[in-house]
Structure formats: C-alpha cells, structure tokens
Amino acid sequence: MPNHPDDNMKKVVFIINPISGTTKKAGIPKLIESRLDKSLFDSSIAETQYAGHATEIAAKCAEEGVDIVVAVGGDGTVNEVGRALTGTSTALGIIPCGSGNGLARHLLLPLDPSKAIAIINRCEIHDLDYGLINNHPFFCTCGMGFDAFISMKFAEAGKRGPMTYAENILREGLKYKPETYEIEDETGTKRYKAFLVSAANASQYGNNAYIAPQASMSDGLLDVIIMEPFDVLEAPQISIDMFNKTLDKNSKIKTFKAKHIHIHRKEQGWIHYDGDPVMSDADVDISLVSKGIKVIVNPDGDKTSRQPNIVQTTVCELLNDINSVRENIQRQGHRMQVLNKLLLRRIGKQS
Questions:
Q1: Which residues pair with 276 in a beta bridge?
Q2: Global pTM value
Q3: What distances in angstroms separate CA 246 from CA 5, 85, 274, one per listed residue?
Q4: Cα–Cα nearest to 225, from 143, 148, 137
Q5: What are the pLDDT digits (tens) for 153-197?
Q6: E strand residue ranges, the chain
Q7: 93-113 pLDDT tens trace
C-alpha cells in the first residue's frame, strides 16, 4: 500500500488485470505516472495474478482506508473490484480496458486511458445503486435465459469483442427454446414465456448494446426486461432496437421497474451477473441496494446521449409498423385457415 506523505492527499490504488479484455495494458503504469495529479493523489499499482485476486486486493484496500480503488480492465475486473467496495467508504474508479465496458459506457467515462485518468483527477464521487442476484453483486445487468446462455458461450469462446457476441447470437439464437418464468414483485406474481429475463441497474450490456435504455443507477429501482419469443423475421428489428436505444419500444419487450423480484423456473439453469455465467437453482432472487457503492463519475457526461435521437426513434417506429402489419396478415391468414377447415367439415357432414 502507498505511503501517505500528506494528510490532504487521497490514497489511490490501481488494480490492473493484465489479461482481461482486448486492450493491452503494458503502457498503463507509465500513463498513470505521467497523467495522474500527484498534488492530489498518493498512488500505487497492483497486478492481479488469478481469478478473484482483484477482490482480495480491493477488500484489503478498503480495510486500510484507501480512498479510491481503480479497476483497470473489463467488466469482470470492475465487478471483482466493485463487489469488495460495496458498503465501504472507498470509491470505485474505472479505466476501461475490456471488450464490452458496460459500466464505463453507462457512466459516460472515456474509453481512452489518458482521458479516463483525467476524470479520476477531477474525483467527482457519487453514491450509486448496485444489484444482487442470488447474493452475487452486479453493477450493470444480470439475467437468465438466452443472455445467460450467450454469456456462458462467450466465456467458452476464448475470444473477446462484439464479433464474438454476434457470432454466438447468430449461431445459437434460432435454436434456443424459450422458457416459462413465474416472476413475483411487490404487485403480485405473473407468468411469462420468455426468451430472456434481465434485470438492469445500468442501461447496457456493453459495446453500446442497450438492454434497458431508461435504466438509472440512482433511482433505487431495477429495470426488469422480459423478451418474449420472436421469429426469424423479427430478430433483425430486436438487434437494431438494442443498438438504437429503442428496445423498450419493441412490441416483443415487456418492461417494469421493481426493487426486488423473485423468479421461479421449471429447473436449474444458467444465470449471469455482469456477463459472468454461473449455474443456479430453479429459484432466483434479484434485489437492488440503493446508494450502496461510491463511484467516480464523469462530471461532463451528457446523459441525453443514452437516449435515442429522432432518426433512431423513426426507424424503430417504422419497423414496428411493418411487423404489426405482417402480424395482422399472419393472423388473418390463420383465421382463414380455421374457417376453411370448418367449412370443409360442414360440407363433409352435409354430403
């Protein structure tokens, strides 16, 4: 841990995961040395050596009264560091070097390491919410169904980046079977047949894929997203809506806000927290801890950038109209088939 030559200086520890994500981190220590404001911070650097090591380092920092612990890596590293800082006075900082960078993107933090260090220099700290899924902390999203399945496939793939997500989604998506979920919240219990169920504390998975465009980390509520079964012709619209920040307007999406939900499914299966997959029992408990973690934020972040612009909204409305017409035609065709069958039966009886 760093020495503390000046009581007015803040202690900051940078935890670097040398193997996470897609960005090489060999130059990060030099950037910290040259860009961090030494009149404000007394700093040191620690490198992780194994899975879970970041949590151990961060927990020790919190115990010793370190002011800020900065996660240098991807969403997995951020989760490892963040889970050790919940409920403490130590703030989480982020230098995003991962493949998705979901929390950093939601917080509108720069993806350039030099600019991310400049945000740390400004040291604006907010108390933000975080979530728990079966007692696993998450800061962006958690869920089950297809997105947990893809998280498992992504972990197996060994490659990082949006193309790996896309390949897995295209390869596995059409084969995936929806499940039935019983979801209980403060208003009661409802049953859904769904492709996936997600709970979002932040707006996106990462890579600017917005699963919950309206999600806030300071409203004390989770955004619950239920994606109903869809066919191959509807899949492109769902993909477009996710990257256009208009998924909540899609007719196959049901959303509501809650502080706590309990989910029952037929059997055990995969869940994920911030993209990390784990096998879980049939019952899944998800809750929100309000203002439970201190986080360095971007004071100049433009929150309106999380919302769709007029072109994106127009595209969403157009695609919804096209699919609505197609569904009406399909329903009418189904009705005609039923009427024809009834007519043929009547004719058969009369003859």
A1: 273
A2: 0.82
A3: 51, 33, 21
A4: 143
A5: 655 555 555 555 555 555 666 677 899 999 999 999 999 999 899
A6: 10-16, 41-47, 68-73, 91-96, 125-133, 136-138, 141-145, 179-185, 188-194, 196-200, 204-206, 209-210, 222-227, 253-258, 260-265, 269-273, 276-280, 283-296
A7: 999 998 789 999 999 999 999
